Structures are given as C-alpha cells and as structure tokens.
Structure to design on (297 residues):
C-alpha cells in the first residue's frame, strides 16, 4: 500500500467524528489540561495499541490559562464611562477600584513612529500608594507586555491597563499575552479612550474599576508517543501533530484538522502505517507523535 492510498477522506473523518463527540461530551473543548484532552489521549492510545504500536506518555507541567468571563473596565469618576476592553492572556483575576496613575514617560500625543518605552523600567512609575488601590496606565512600545506588567507589580500597583501606542496602525484596542501568569488584573485599551483617560488623570483624581475572572494555574498533561515494534531504529520515519484543541472560539475536533486529521488516518490504516501486514510496509522504524500544549504557547 502506498502512503497516498493509506490516507482517505473517510479514514480522516472517522477519527475526527470521535474527537468531535469527545468535545461535545466535555463542554465543547479538548484543550490541554482539561478532561476533554484526557479522553482524546485515551482514544488515541487505545487505537495506536490496537494497531500494534508501543505507546508511551511524556508528562509535563504547563501554565493553564482560561478566561472565565470577559473583562470589564469603567471610569467611575469624574466622568462615568464604560470602555471596550480585553483581558491579556495570563492576567491575574480579580476586581480593583482605584485611581489611575500613568507611567511618567507616557507619550501623548503619540509620535508618528513607534517610540514609547513607557513601563519598561520600574522607575517609570511614581511609588504606589501603600493604603489606596491604584491602577497603572501604560502605553504600548519597546519592551514586552509581560515586562511592563512585571514592572508595574514590582512598583506596587494593583491592576494594569495597557493601551495601544497611537501611531498609524497602532490605535485600536490592544490585545496580547503576558507570557506567564501574573498576580494582578491586566486589561487592554484603545488609544483614543486612553488619551482621554490620561488627560483626565493628569487634570485630577480619576477612578476606574477593572474586573477580570480567569483560571491561571499549573496543570499536568502529556504527549503521546508511539513506536513500531519492528524496523530499523536508526532510520525512523516520524509522523507528528498536535492533539489538543483551543479552549474557545474553535474548540471542536476540526480545530487544526488540516494537520492532525490526516496524521490520525496515517497512523491507523489497516492495522497501522508501519506495523500491519495489510498496512504500508517499510524496513524503517516508525514513530507517531501526538504533541500536547501547543495551544498554551
């Protein structure tokens, strides 16, 4: 059997339908660190063992993050107003009612080209109040969102608003990742809203309320590795893909179908790609890899 003949549309759909059913049974997701992924891994392991592979697991820890409810950001005084906002990935969870304090090197109005380095050093902030909650307002630019957030936390602030820099093409609501979990709420804001909020804070006391609800914790998951029982172990053909799905927006079995759907079909046809007498024959060894946690990066 040729490799091209071993992969069929019906073979691909057979397994993707099973994964879709798993997603349906576990809240619409098979993301790493969830019961849906555990069930997906169990299905793949069982099928690989049935096909004659030696199956092992490679456990590892990762930072699990899930937004439970959308974030909110509102000005309480002097001018009550709700803002269009977003939660930064790996934000902390909680609600903070506090005064707005902008980084001392904020560039408003923005320059024509990106140049802001606001929040890239702890010295970019006046010392935070020891008694009253405060929310830092930071302009995008130069260093990473994560560096800005860590500098704010080190300076003693209780929540963070990161806003777009204001140059051409950098004015809309800013969204992004902090790279690792932080302890305080971190949300985004567009340039126009931020410029008005900055002006208000410069003119006098300005209070906002920031709210985020997330799950951020260390969880354990595993990659699935399957090796053929026979073949030349010094010359190995590797077939690999990711097995987990995203948490939201596209959590079904068809998330990533263009890569792992065909790989599933390749691994299982007629007793296995490399192992069965009715499958594709090769003198080489074979390794099938089902990576997990790709969606966590």
């Amino acid at each position: 059997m040729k490799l091209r003949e071993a992969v069929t549309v019906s073979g691909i759909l057979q397994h993707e339908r099973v994964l879709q059913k798993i997603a349906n049974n576990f809240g619409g997701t098979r993301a790493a660190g969830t019961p849906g992924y555990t069930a997906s891994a169990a299905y793949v392991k069982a099928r690989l063992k049935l096909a004659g592979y030696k199956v092992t697991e490679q456990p590892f820890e990762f930072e699990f993050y899930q937004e439970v409810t959308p974030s909110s950001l509102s000005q309480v005084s002097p001018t009550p107003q709700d803002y269009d906002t977003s939660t930064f990935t790996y934000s902390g969870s909680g609600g903070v009612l506090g005064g707005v304090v902008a980084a001392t090197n904020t560039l408003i109005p923005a320059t024509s080209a990106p140049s802001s380095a606001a929040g890239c050093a702890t010295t970019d902030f006046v010392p935070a109040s020891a008694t009253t909650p405060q929310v830092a307002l930071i302009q995008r630019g130069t260093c990473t969102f994560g560096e800005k957030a860590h500098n704010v936390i080190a300076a003693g602030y209780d929540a963070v608003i990161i806003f777009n820099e204001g140059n051409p093409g950098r004015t809309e609501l800013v969204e992004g990742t902090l790279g690792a979990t932080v302890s305080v709420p971190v949300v985004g804001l567009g340039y126009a809203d931020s410029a008005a909020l900055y002006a208000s804070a410069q003119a006098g006391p300005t209070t906002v309320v920031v709210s985020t609800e997330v799950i951020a914790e260390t969880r354990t998951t595993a990659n699935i590795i399957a090796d053929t029982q026979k073949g030349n172990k010094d010359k190995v053909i590797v077939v690999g893909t990711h097995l987990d799905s995203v948490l939201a927006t596209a959590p079904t079995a068809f998330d990533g179908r263009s890569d792992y759907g065909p790989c599933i079909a390749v691994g299982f046809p007629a007793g296995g790609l490399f192992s069965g007498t009715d499958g594709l024959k090769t003198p080489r060894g074979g390794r099938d890899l089902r990576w997990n946690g790709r969606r966590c990066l």
The domain at 65-216 is CATH 3.50.30.30 (Glucose Oxidase; domain 1).
